[in-house]
Amino acid sequence: MKKNQFWTFRYTLINILYFVAFCTIHAYAGVFLLDKGFTNTQVGLALAISNILSVFGQPFVAGIIDKGKVLTNRLTVMFSSLFLLIGSLVLIFVNTEKVPIFAIFVLMYTVQFVYQPIMIAMNFEYAKAGCKINFGLARGMGSAGFAVTSFFLGKAVENYGTNIILYVTIAAMALMVLIVFLFKKPVGENVKAEIENTEDKKENEGGGFFAFIKKYPFFMVFLLGAACCFFAHNMINDFMIQIIRSLGGNETQLGYATFLQAILELPVMALIGFVLKKISERHMLVFSAVSFFIKTAILIFATSMFGMYVSQSFQMFAYAVFIPTAAYFADHMMKENDKVKGQAFINSSITLGGVFSNLVCGKILDAFGVKAMLGVGVSVCLVGVAIVMIAVYPMMKKIPKTAE
Fold it and tell me: Which of 8, 47, 158, 179 is most deeply packed, by most CB within 10 A?
């Protein structure tokens, strides 16, 4: 393997550009759709449909890729980015028609969720081919890209209108398509591994969702625990402005809190590969689950914005630990023809937690207020901690420590 290929640098650029667009499409979804004349109910419906579609879309697309006959990870990432680019271009010209705006935006939102685990799986695929990639650093820089974009985009929207969101997405995805097109896996440097992978796929080909459950029962239990933890995580993110207002803050403090949690992810994700050489993945996953619980519980007792900032600081121990550790975890425990599905199911569980959070927490917030909503989030998260502990220890006994 030539050392001048800059695999980490190029994979880092892919992550940064993805999360720039993740910020424009996901974080500013409400801002964009409300400006186009949609009601809060219609915005909620659009996001709910997108989340539900992605829950099923992620393992479906991953299953096609794992068969290795039509799609590859790289082609899926490239074509998905191209779709986001084209969708943004169309939305610039379809400026007043609500039905096409709704349909296109839902598809863009869904596609971006669907190919996130594919991008993660691409890292491990290239690593097996001999490409030295620091996944944690690349993913952490993606979070930094999200943080910086979020920091500047709010003011840009105020000055130039919501279409600036589309222009930023187009620029990011144009660069993304180009970089992914050039990000080709080296040929012939890991031939033995490729042959073994092909034979493994032929041997294990077939079987759908229920076959996957039979093969990895404790993994599916783990996903339930992850969904519970992300129920609380998404509750805070989705209803953050209501929580902040209850603590005496406003939209300015919302920007500070969002930036804080995103930027703190970078150092932890960058170092996670080193940490996982010293501490097993099972311990880190449990540590992450407990941190989700603490992050949520702090808000129940918070009386000012200081409490919110302390809570957001636990993002570095909760989300920033969970995402890369879970990615290594799935890659290590899955057979070759299940690896992409494993990444997809993790993302599906995260999304599913968000779906239930949206359906439940909004109603509790309207009926009983912020404290009651936080109480429900803490309770669900505590159940998630218990489930994660029950699930990961039996699985991890057969899994070696992370090696990079």
Answer: 47
